[in-house]
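To: structure subgroup
Subject: Chain for Friday's discussion

All,

I'm putting the inputs and outputs inline so they're searchable in the archive.
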Amino acid sequence: MTLGTRLGVMNHGRIAQVGTPSDIYESPANRFVADFIGSVNMFEGRVCDGGGECLRIDSAELGCTVRAERAATGAAGATVWTAIRPEKINISRQPPVAAPAPSPENLVRGTVREIAYMGDMSIYLVQIESGKMLRVTLPNITRGLERPLTREESVWLSWHGTSPVVLTE
């Protein structure tokens, strides 16, 4: 990704996507490309509302409704996959103030199972209520100002509506 300004990703001898490194990372053409380039959390779901400026996707795997504001199309009832990069997920001890009840969007609860301190960032593996594990990365931008998250701690994961990429294949 650092050696070229234009990349090609191949899958079984066929070109899956060609573009700039940021295009391929931020807007993968399909599940293979999303998974091949960097880490990604991917969940299957069904489009419940495809009107307006965003898609709403019910995901049993994720245990919430995903609101995706990026350009995507999907007919109600269509099966899609939602890809969310680990660095685009927020982790906190308390739910975001703006979380609507009873069915919040882009918000799940989980338990921190593993923490890897990498110096410049920390990687958290969080098990959500459905049993799936999500990978969350956070930059280590402060030095001991607040109590760090610990293993087995209950946390809330949330993300902005522009973070998910909706994939149909």
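Points worth raising on Friday:
The chain has two helices and twelve strands.
The first strand starts at residue 7 and ends at 11.

D.
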